[in-house]
């Protein structure tokens, strides 16, 4: 069997590029936070006061602004754009000839598995809770379509050659939707397992997280978030009646 493991040089390049990716990713987010306008938010006036009590004993424009900005800036905004951008990163910056973008409908990348040496067709998902019940049939239909296409073209594609690859998480964190796909006999690789099959390194997943953490320390999000809080606070004060002030 051909050894498709990443070399040390390739792993080092992957880690360097990961650090640069997250530096740029965080810097871009910080810049967008500073430019974001109040009218881009649509807070629920019935619940924002309760959320504000998580930041202050006093319900005022500042505490409500923090309740609006912090979950957005430190949660949803980061997580929703992470998957797509990091998927692009895998294709563009992972320096290994065994990985490329896929032209097959429903698949994101194709790679030579570092463990079994077989060609894989992979749909990349960002995290362990990123699909709903209705997505199960769509995903499984894509897998079936690939197998049918392979048969038509006299190519041997096994069921486990079509992979759902989840960028982070573990089996315990995997949603019931992904577990259902696994129970139906399809391959779902999550977190460390996915990166192990992609690179052949059992340690690369932890190293990637460490590089993201290193970049986060340099990101200095706080000034941008404080500025956004001020922007939202000003908007709340200009709309006091809507927020019960």
Q: What is the CA-atom radius of gyration, in angstroms?
A: 22 Å
Helix content: 40-55%
- Assembly type: single chain
Instruction: Categorize the overall geometry.
Output: elongated
Low-confidence stretches: none
- Derived from helix and strand composition plus strand pairing, the structural class reads alpha/beta
Report strand order across the widest sheet: 1-2-3-4-5
Largest sheet: 5 strands, mixed
Distance between the termini: 70 Å
The tally of strands reads 5
- Beta-strand portion reads 5-15%
Count helical runs.
8
What is the overall pLDDT average? 87
Order of helices and strands: HHHEEEHEHEHHH
Walk me through what this model shows.
- Helix 1 runs antiparallel to helix 3 (61-93), helix 1 runs parallel beside helix 7 and helix 1 packs parallel to helix 8.
- Strand 1 and strand 2 form a beta hairpin.
- The chain has helices at residues 8-35, 48-52, 61-93, 133-152, 176-183, 192-199, 204-219, 222-237; strands at residues 99-101, 109-112, 119-125, 162-166, 187-190.
- A 5-stranded mixed sheet has the order 1-2-3-4-5, sandwiched between helices.
- The chain has 8 helices and 5 strands; from the N terminus they run αααβββαβαβααα.
- The mean pLDDT is 87.
- The protein is elongated, with a radius of gyration of 22 Å.
- It has 245 residues and is of the alpha/beta class.
- The longest helix is centred in the N-terminal third of the chain and has 33 residues, at 61-93.
């Amino acid at each position: 069997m051909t050894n498709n493991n990443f070399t040390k040089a390739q792993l080092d390049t992957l880690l360097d590029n990961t650090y640069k990716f997250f530096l740029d990713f965080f810097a871009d987010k910080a810049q967008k936070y500073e430019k974001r306008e109040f009218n881009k938010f649509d807070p629920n006036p019935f619940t924002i006061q309760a959320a504000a009590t998580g930041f202050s004993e006093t319900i005022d424009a500042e505490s409500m602004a923090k309740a609006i900005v912090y979950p957005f800036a430190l949660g949803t905004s980061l997580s929703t754009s992470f998957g797509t951008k990091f998927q692009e990163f895998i294709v563009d910056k992972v320096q290994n000839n065994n990985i490329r973008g896929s032209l097959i409908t429903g698949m994101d990348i194709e790679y030579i598995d570092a463990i079994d040496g077989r060609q894989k067709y992979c749909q990349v998902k960002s995290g362990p809770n990123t699909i709903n019940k209705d997505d199960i049939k769509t995903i499984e239909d894509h897998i079936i379509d690939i197998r049918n296409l392979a048969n038509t073209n006299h190519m041997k594609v096994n069921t486990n050659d079509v992979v759902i690859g989840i960028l982070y998480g573990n089996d315990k964190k995997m949603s019931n939707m992904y577990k259902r796909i696994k129970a139906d006999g399809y391959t779902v690789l999550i977190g460390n397992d996915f990166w192990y099959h992609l690179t052949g390194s059992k340690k690369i997943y932890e190293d990637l997280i460490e590089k993201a953490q290193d970049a986060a320390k340099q990101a200095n999000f706080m000034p941008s978030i404080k500025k956004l809080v001020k922007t939202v606070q000003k908007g709340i004060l200009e709309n006091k009646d809507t927020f019960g002030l």
